[in-house]
Design goal:
alpha+beta, 28% helix, 9 strands, 213 residues, Aminopeptidase, two-stranded antiparallel ribbon, disordered C terminus
Length: 213
């Protein structure tokens, strides 16, 4: 189950946000050794102040946090434009109201090992990728863009996203980094669902709380 959380409403979801920032610190700082800012065990950056949309994976029974991803329009602040422009060729840019960027996709470590589906992905990462494309369909997007390393490139390929590489892949630190775009829409969504073995929507439907008369 994926909960959609707008950055402007983040204070309404203290558990989900705290768990997400802690998971990001664990994955990107401790496990991958990226140069990211961690304060009191939480990783966040300036793009978390740009009112992104977060997809947060929660266990449908326990509501325990399992993973997350961040989405930002390419018409405003985003990592490709403001941090990694050198990955694009001279004169090349990605900016359109119908293209959003994803970043900081991660899952708790225990979700990355057992119970992998037919695609070889953990259930949480598979769910997040399906959710990204579902959001794209709902928002009328044409494409999703991302800066990813070789690890995430393998993940999105396994999920049936078939990203088109643009720009100039370069080594950042110990790994190759890429810029890729992949299509949204009903046909790509169906293909991705087949690849990861997920049927039906993964986005949670918020139900209003009952108010006593």
């Amino acid at each position: 189950m994926l909960k959609q959380i707008e950055g402007s409403c983040a204070s309404d979801y203290p558990y989900e946000m705290d768990a997400m920032f802690r998971n990001r610190a664990q994955i990107f700082k401790e496990r991958l050794g990226w140069t990211v800012s961690v304060t009191e065990g939480r990783e966040r950056d300036v793009f978390d102040d740009a009112n992104p949309l977060y997809l947060v994976s929660l266990d449908p029974l326990t509501r325990k946090y399992r993973g997350s991803v961040r989405l930002l329009p390419t018409t405003g602040p985003n990592m490709l434009r403001d941090v990694f422009p050198f990955l694009l060729r001279d004169g090349e840019f990605v900016e359109s109201p119908t293209i959003w960027e994803i970043s900081r996709i991660c899952a708790v470590p225990s979700e990355c090992q057992p119970d992998r589906g037919k695609s070889g992905l953990s259930p949480t990462l598979a769910e997040l990728i399906v959710g990204i494309v579902e959001v794209g369909v709902m928002a009328g997007l044409s494409q999703i863009v991302a800066v990813f390393d070789a690890r995430i490139y393998r993940i999105v390929k396994a999920a049936g996203c078939d990203p088109q590489l643009i720009g100039r892949p370069q080594r950042i630190g110990d790994t190759m980094s890429y810029v890729g775009v992949f299509d949204t829409g009903n046909s790509p969504l169906m293909a991705i669902r087949r690849a990861v073995g997920i049927q039906g929507s993964v986005l949670a439907v918020e139900t209003p709380e009952l108010v006593a008369a």
